[in-house]
Design a protein that fits this description.
The protein is 22% helix and 20% strand. With 195 residues, the protein is an alpha/beta fold. Bound molecules: the ligand Nc1ccn([C@H]2C[C@H](O)[C@@H](COP(=O)(O)O)O2)c(=O)n1 and zinc ion (ZN). Residues 172-195 are annotated as: Disordered.
């Protein structure tokens, strides 16, 4: 009898991969973020990425980061976590988990708490002390939300999606390459999340 496939995605890898894939819908030229919410039964109930509100033109609103605040992206972009919560297809997400490619900001932390989500799994966090992330941590901890850093696989694991042929390959090797930096652990304040 043939054996089941051994080289497959763990649940956490699966949900974080979906968050990462969703981030690739973002039009933010600097930082693409994705989020995936699961309910208590491990079913996906919401997905989102950072982008402008419905009906607001990607071409008319600014995408810059500096200068006059009104002429930056910050007042206009909906965060990935916010979109995932608003897109949820189930009213009750109490006790759910949100997988997010970037640590949630304080505004998203409020939404996470109020929606009943009880766990956050994040892949990246901006280095140093950033007020929006410090305040978020304060709120999440106070509300009893579990904060967990995504545990990357012990060995190299990468997914390659070929949209031309419609094929996908999951490559894994026994050892992590020492020379190649892990993009999930190494981001600067200004860098793209996924290289
Ligand atoms: N947890 C987060 C944090 C940030 N975002 C979005 C908001 C912006 O589009 C971008 C951050 O801009 P940056 O200053 O890093 O270029 O990421 C989000 O969706 N979720
Ligand atoms: Zn946010």
């Amino acid at each position: 009898m043939s054996k089941p496939r051994e080289d497959y995605l763990s649940w956490d890898e699966y949900f974080m991969s979906i968050a990462l894939l969703s981030s690739q819908r973002s039009k933010d030229p600097a930082t693409q973020v994705g989020a995936c919410i699961i309910n208590k039964k491990q079913r996906i109930v919401g997905i989102g990425y950072n982008g402008l509100p419905h009906g607001c033109s990607d071409k008319e609103l600014p995408w810059g980061k500096t200068g006059d605040w009104m002429e930056t992206k910050y007042p206009y972009v909906c965060h990935a976590e916010m979109n995932a919560i608003l897109n949820k297809n189930q009213a009750d997400i109490d006790g759910g988990t949100i997988f997010t490619t970037l640590y949630p900001c304080n505004e998203c932390a409020k939404l996470i708490i109020q929606s009943g989500i009880s766990k956050v799994v994040y892949a990246n966090k901006k280095p140093g002390s950033v007020p929006a992330f410090d305040a978020s941590e304060r709120l999440l901890k106070m509300a009893g939300v579990i904060i967990s850093k995504f545990d990357p696989p012990a060995s190299e694991k990468s997914l390659k999606i070929d949209l031309n042929t419609g094929s996908i390959s999951l490559d894994s090797s026994q050892q992590k390459s020492i020379s190649k930096p892990n993009p999930l652990q190494n981001i600067s304040n200004d860098s793209k999340i996924i290289a």
